[in-house]
Fold this sequence. Notes:
Layout: H1 24-59, H2 88-108, H3 121-136, E1 149-151, H4 157-167, H5 172-175, H6 211-228, E2 239-244, H7 251-254, H8 257-262, E3 268-274, H9 289-299, E4 303-307, H10 314-318, H11 324-331, H12 334-341, H13 345-351, H14 357-362, H15 368-372, H16 381-393, E5 399-404, H17 429-439, H18 445-450, H19 465-477, H20 500-503, E6 510-511, H21 513-526, E7 534-538, H22 551-554, E8 556-557, E9 577-578, E10 584-585, H23 590-601, H24 603-606, E11 612-618, H25 623-635, E12 640-645, H26 664-669, E13 674-677, H27 682-697, E14 707-711, E15 717-718, H28 728-733, E16 735-739, E17 747-752, H29 757-771, E18 774-780, H30 783-799, H31 809-813, E19 821-824, E20 843-846, H32 857-864, H33 868-881, H34 889-897
Parallel strand pairs: 1-2, 2-3, 3-5, 4-5, 7-10, 7-11, 8-9, 11-12, 12-14, 13-14, 17-18, 17-19, 19-20
Antiparallel strand pairs: 6-15, 16-18
Amino acid sequence: MAVAAEDTTDILSGLTNQLPDRDPEETAEWIESLDELIRSQGTERAQYIMRSLLQRAGSQSVGVPMVTTTDYVNTIPVDQEPEFPGDEEIERRYRAWLRWNAAIMVHRAQRPGIGVGGHISTYAGAATLYEVGMNHFFRGKDHPGGGDQIYFQGHASPGMYARAFLEGRLSEEDMDGFRQEKSREGHALSSYPHPRSMPDFWEFPTVSMGIGPMNAIYQAQSNRYLQNRGIKDTSEQHVWAFLGDGEMDEPESRGLLQLAANDKLDNLTFVINCNLQRLDGPVRGNGKIMQELEAFFRGAGWNVIKVVWGREWDDLLQRDKDGSLVDIMNATPDGDYQTYKAESGGFVREHFFGKSPETKELVANLTDEEIWNLKRGGHDYRKVYAAYKAAMEFKGAPTVILAHTVKGYGLGTHFEGRNATHQMKKLTLDDLKAFRDHLRIPISDEQLEADPYQPPYYNPGADAPEIKYMLERRRELGGNVPERRVQHEPVHLPDEKAYEVANRGSGKQLAATTMAFVRLLKDLMRDKEFGKRIVPIIPDEARTFGMDSFFPTAKIYNPKGQNYLSVDRDLVLAYKESPQGQIVHVGINEAGSIAAFTAAGTSYATHGEPLIPVYVFYSMFGFQRTADYIWAATDQMARGFLISATAGRTTLTGEGLQHADGHSPILASTNPAVKTYDPAYGYEIGHIIRHGLEEMYGPDSQDPNVIYNLMVYNEPIQQPKAPEDLDVEGIIKGIYLLAPAKIDGPRTQLLASGVAVPWALEAQKLLAEDWGVSADVWSVTSWNELRRDGLAAEEEAFLNPGSEPRVPFVTQQLAGATGPIVASTDYMKAVPDQIRQFLPNEFATLGADDFGFADTRAAARRYFKIDSHSMVVRALEMLARRGEVDANAPKEAMEKYHLLDVNAGTSGNAGGDA
Length: 914
């Protein structure tokens, strides 16, 4: 039996329950006056009067609490509902066909020998929410205003496929390829919205919960950014995000709401499908998720519209003179509402309306079937249309629409509102027949019984009036939705002159690779044709990275400008905000930074205007904190640069454990679209950046949908100028000979990357001067790319038996390099170990394989045994075993260099911001 909540304080704001009523008669007169105002002049006038009174009360210091939640009824009163502009009957008919085809597609995917899963219930409950948008609001890319961006709820993807099937965009064979992306290649549909899998169909990946809402907010901001910077007119484009109420428990779903409110993003609407269910059970069994979300969004500064009840309730609510029905609606917890939809009309009469004599009398003239057909608001296209129209017309803040629905709506008693409905993927023969009858699909019992695993889809053909109507609505709104296009404005890439600052080195000055990169970025931004397309993204660390020099010229993007007197206004590097600002300064917000990166990095497809995001961050807080968001960015085929600044486990001195990054390259290696580089010098950075831009937007690119990830450091060194005979191919592919041996003697190879290259050069000198050993020094710019190339060569050989196998690039480069290899980096051993299998040489890895800690660079490197002296000793050990140096040399070297004394280290210097 359903039980009413005893304590409803978490359900409805208590405005009066903490105060005594000293004159009930006067109170009743005030309430009666308000009721009369509503009767005579309508709810719109009453709203204005109430807002005026609240404003006046505040100015008179009358303590009126914020109304965080309203009654559990529709926000838009009946008398303010607009006329529905469409043909209700036609739309109802083909919406039924959509719901049938969506469910049948998933059901057929469970046929014997396939059984690939799928989700039936989400779209069944949300069909009205989507169809009102598809028929009347969602603008396609051919719309004069440019088209909208729509984030479809991931589990509702079958509904979008079903619509594309009726529109003629997908065939029956395509529908039967659901979740069979390789075995049915050419006729395959991805499980969820995956742009990488279906690059002409889906725009936004959304099924990783929480990333959709976050990305939608920054997409709306990016639209305004394009507008304010004069790159594109986006004034008529709207961002819609369809979300689940359970999804709103993800921190990312709510954690960035303030940005949308602060930027007044009235080009953004969230539609939250409040079916009251998570994947396993109620979202808030003892509470009310719609009320909770109303309070949360209202508190964050959003406009909130609740769509709770369908039109069948309007008469009951109008006759609810004493508020008894509303009281029951307010007090009933979600767990009971879920139970009601899994029972019957008679059960609802007894356990809901039967809670008071007044409400029981309200439905005395209704049959049990009529009670059962009292719909929830999210299934009523008139109510949903009113909410969408109000959202589009509201100015000054984003809008959230909370739509009350039933998960599995119309699928029958085995599905509707059941805890297990999310996992249910197929219908019984009886379910199929009942579902067909409910939707009035013209399919016979014989057709269903012929093969219950493959009931037929329904498509009346392009000449049916319903299909003609559907297609006409889309034509008027600007074409297909969803649809992804990649045609974009041409990108004029910078010429060689822009890279001169990287190639000439730092002279006598010391400069960290972070500073070398920042200087290069500044020159690229100065390019007249290309510079405007760069979007620097900084999470509140610009001064650490030396990027505060960008503030006065590029300026920080703020749609409101700078309406205060800046404390540092007299300084050369004053903080400067502007609506035309180029820098996206997200604050202490790595997740938001990746969302901003994604919006900018996919602008070439979303808007046909390429932007090149350059996100500079504390490296430990990149892939370690936001790898899932970066994965979604690559699924959306974002292009741009991730700059892992203050990189390394021993280079960021003083910061300690949480900041000491020894593993980002390994984490980055798990993403197939991310190319990770660990450059040692500015000139290497210049060539990598240039090649990255060519790969993303050059005419000869084989795969432009890549992200370049560069590790840069804060340790100042003397940046050399680019050598005359520089092996540029080696830099791009991952390794080149930096410093050949200068003497003859026993041979060894020293491999290093990034900040470790100077240690290798120091070790080369020590080996020659102290031990007569000849060492070549190699700069490894990308261990990750060398491994990918090696694995690809092995795969080619595996699949082409009898053919001459391709030699991996790293094997080619080191083909004539004799002697053992010692590899050292500022990362864990797993980073250089990636190439071990592709080299015949004896291979030793030095690495920082423990937690980080705060100390000097030299002491930390000596502790981890990754410094120059450690490289020397390790090389001597391997040479001694081969009989090429004296057997006592390794021990003598350990004693000579005090290798076990952390205070004896010399590799590294002080300085650099941290």
